[in-house]
From TrEMBL:
NCBIfam families xrefs: HAD-SF-IIB (TIGR01484)
Residues given in the record as Mg(2+) 2 binding sites: D230
Species this chain originates from: Bifidobacterium callimiconis
Assembly, per entry: Homodimer.
EC number per UniProt: 5.4.2.8
Residue positions binding alpha-D-mannose 1-phosphate: R146, S197, D199
Species classification: Bacteria, Bacillati, Actinomycetota, Actinomycetes, Bifidobacteriales
Cofactor entry: Mg(2+)
Positions of transmembrane segments: none
Coiled-coil intervals, chain numbering: none
Protein name, UniProt field: phosphomannomutase
Positions of Mg(2+) 1 binding: D27, D29
Amino acid sequence: MGDVMIHRWDEVDYDRLGGLIDAVGFDLDTTLAKSKTPMTRDMADAFAELTHHIPCAVVSGGKYHLFTNQILAMIGDKANRRNLHLMPTSGTRYYAWNGSAWQCRYAHDLSPEDRDAAIASLTRHAKEQGLWLPDDRIWGDRLEDRGSQITFSALGQLAPVAAKEAWDPDRAKKNRLAAAVAADLPQLTVRSGGSTSVDVVAKGIDKAYAMHQLSTILNVPIGRIAFIGDRMDPDGNDYPTAVAGAYAIRVTCPDDTLEAIRRLTAVLSLTTAE
Ligand SMILES: [Mg+2]
């Protein structure tokens, strides 16, 4: 494998980037919006504007309904929806606008046996490692069956952002749980997901897989897709996009992404018009 290049968002030459890419992919949590919260009004405006200049995709480990709450409800009909591609659960599902509604174009789900095995292993190891907190200390369900993905969230699906960010800042707890579960499930892929979560998915399903899917959907080479995410460290869930060959751009928060979108839009609006 060749060198993996990660570009800091504030070191990107956007004038040059505009000529290098034919599509832009985005992570959702901590990139377009704070975890599980709607994107800001400023972000919604900027993001919707960008879809009028270049195909945009959002790739997240989260479920489709989060896309509805965090993105679609905020952008309304301001976006060019035919240029927007939604890829929840790491691209195992793909939704596109059919002219009147968002339509699921495919869903690659886990088998019932694999889902049961994943739930059993996550439960056992979380309890053994002291990560199965009392019910009165969590918010919502710990375990979620997303069809193509089983997710364990230590503080529950509905935990407030501040609690989640404080729980495992160095990711040691999550990574330890993921390693133990991975040993039980060699046929599946186990990885640390959002700030408190561990995901189990089919082998080979990560954001690199999503990049390959997107490349096929758009008929654009991966090398001409930019991907913007906050987890571009080698054990982060956005890093596989860089390994797959996308032009990887690292941000630290939605404010960075907003500025990156504005700079890219300024460049593209000189060369494209709708
Ligand atoms: Mg993220």
